[in-house]
Amino acid sequence: MPEHVTMNRLPRIIFGNNSSEMIARICETARLKRVMVVCDGALITADVVGRMLTQMQESGLIASVLDHVIPDPPSSLVDEYAQLARDHEADSVVGIGGGSSLDIAKGVAVLLRNGGGISDYAGVDTVPHQAASLILVPTTAGSGSEVTNVAVYSDDRGNKFGVVTPHHIAEIAVLDPLLTTGLPPEQTAFTGLDALAHALESYVGKYNSFLTEPYALQAIEYVARYLPRAYEDGSDLAAREHLLRASLLAGISFTNTQTGGAHACALALGIAAKLPHGKAVTLMLPEVVRFNGPAAEEKFARIGRLLSLDTGKLSADRAAESVAAAIEHLAAKLNVELGLHRYGVTRDHVSTIAELAFGNERIWKNNPREPALEDVEMIISRSL
Ligand SMILES: [Fe+2]
After folding, report:
1. Do 339 and 383 form a contact (C-beta atoms < 8 A)?
2. Distance, CA of 132 to CA of 153 (rounded, Å)
3. Is the pLDDT confidence value at 313 over 90?
4. Residue 290 CB contacts under 8 Å (≥ 6 apart), including other chains
5. pLDDT band at 312 (very low <50, low <70, confident <90, very high)
6. Ligand 1 midpoint to CA 118 (Å)
């Protein structure tokens, strides 16, 4: 744990079934007048989201709806949407959807108050002014973006960049488990495993503290217990609710610590091999756990117990191995085929991906074991 620990401000969190039905009232209480809605077009026809938009429309709150959402949002799209928001004289932004919708909403809110293009604010603490009022409503249980201080975009050449600032932390996060019931099994698996990685990497990381640890540990337990259930039966409401709790808690934890090696490698894989985030994180996590084992033995033993492994009988140095194997077992249960080679990554790509991943110093800073470039190459090679 570092000498000083901090906890970023959190949004006001409203969690529970049907909480999204309060959206018009929530906007009015927050004194929003002209709301720009960013919502994945595919969701608009869904009952619950449709009802939410109708309510806002009837309350005269909606300035316009932006419904063309692209994964790894291009900065040009965010800039264009911000201009539309200005044209419609929007004073606030509501983001409804998966991590990409929420990140676009963050970007539009930043540009409404700060001007310029979103790529001007790449990096840490480069946004000078508070973003416009922002309400985030996740429809997947994974990114935790509704409570984090980070958003990820891609530039004209497809390279990803992050904007990290307290100024785009949402004012309010509305989490309605009913919104997540329509998520197909494959997306349920990858978003849930991404949430697991957020919690695990936050907990074993150097910046873990008594302020973040309880959130991360609870999130790990929830994913282990409820992800297979939600995958098997998407309408299992208890499972959906606990997964949404998990992604929220993992988000609260990692926004205060950073993630770790699996995310550094996954971001590189997103750039070099165009692998979607959740999939890339899942494919990298077991080998990153094995690499980190010697630096966080006790913590891996504790994670093992949360994953219902009998780590009490294991020597500490075997705990990370058993956690890595348990993650592989969980992935198999969710029909996720591990091995980067299945997704077009070959030995020829290893050094490029490793260099990109190794260069992400902001993330490695939290990783429990400091790698050399050759270590990152080894982790990626073993994940092939
Ligand atoms: Fe992630």
Report:
1. yes
2. 19
3. no
4. 320, 321, 324, 382
5. low
6. 21
Q: What's the 282 CA to ligand 1 centre distance in angstroms?
A: 9
Among 51, 102, 110, CA closest to 79: 110
Domain 185-382 belongs to what architecture? Up-down Bundle (1.20)
pLDDT at 195 over 90: yes
- Domain spanning 12-180: which CATH class is it, in words? alpha beta
Q: How far is the CA of 40 from the centre of ligand 1 (A)?
A: 19
pLDDT tens-digit series, residues 208-264? 999 999 999 999 999 999 999 999 999 999 999 999 999 999 999 999 999 999 999
DSSP H helical ranges for 255-364: 261-272, 277-292, 297-306, 316-333, 350-358, 361-364
Determine the distance separating the centroid of ligand 1 and the alpha carbon of 63, expressed in angstroms. Answer: 31
Q: Where in the chain is the domain with CATH 1.20.1090.10?
A: 185-382
Pairing of strands 133-138, 92-97: parallel
The dihedral through the CA atoms of 3, 214, 329, 314 has a sign that is: positive
Determine the distance separating the centroid of ligand 1 and the alpha carbon of 133, expressed in angstroms: 25
**Please, which pLDDT band fits residue 159 given cuts at 50, 70 and 90?**
confident
Ligand 1 centroid distance, CA of 223 (Å): 14
**What's the 259 CA to ligand 1 centre distance in angstroms?**
8
**Domain ranges in the chain with CATH number 3.40.50.1970:** 12-180
pTM given for the model: 0.95
**And the tokens for 39?**
């919502």
In the reported structure, the alpha carbon of residue 86 is separated from the centroid of ligand 1 by a whole-number distance in angstroms of 31
